[in-house]
Amino acid sequence: MKLSRPEYFGSGEAIAKEGTAAVLEQPYSQRVGGYTEVMKPFIDFVIAAVLLLITSPVMLVAAITIKLDSKGPVIFRQERYGKNGVKFNIYKFRTMRTDAPKYSASPTTSNDPRITRLGRLLRKTSLDELPQLLNIIKGDMSFVGPRPEQKRIVEESYTDLERRRFLVKPGITGLWQVSDVRKDPIHHNLQYDFHYISNVSILMDIKILFKTVVVMVKSNTF
Questions:
Q1: Residue 148 — φ and ψ, nearest 5°?
Q2: Which of 25, 129, 167, 174 has the greatest CB tally within 10 Å of its CB?
Q3: Which contiguous run of DSSP H or E holds residue 66?
């Protein structure tokens, strides 16, 4: 297992071996502190507020188009687990038909019949994620962190070790999201989240954000 190149964070094999052990052995105070508890939430809030203001015309157009394109609500809400195991509703622009099961597996192809016509465009450009700026402003999420897991998966199969993902806020993007295994289920590759929790810093967050842009461009997102 390896990360998408360029490898900013070391080999995937090293993450697999060290990520879990680090979370088990290091006390919480050594992994997070002033940055994750004070500086990071402040930076998240300010940037999210600015981006929400800048993208509000795009979000308005998207909302109107979604309403015209298919029946159903504009915003898709789904309960997820966040920091300290606190549940919250994640927001996205609705990209699927209203008769699709709410907690079914996420589509792996744009040809999935559950996806609406406009939904294909929104998912391809990641514009469906814009409402998560509200989650950041509310304090539910961060720009960078472990991807928030579905309530069903957590309650049916999570172990005590896997619940340590809840030590930090979940993020819109993260180390797993910029890896070569990002198309696999999140719960199959938790070592990336463990590695992030053990090494979280402002420098790592900047690198992940930069790599996110690179991955999106290389994936022909735009």
A1: -65, 130
A2: 174
A3: helix 40-69
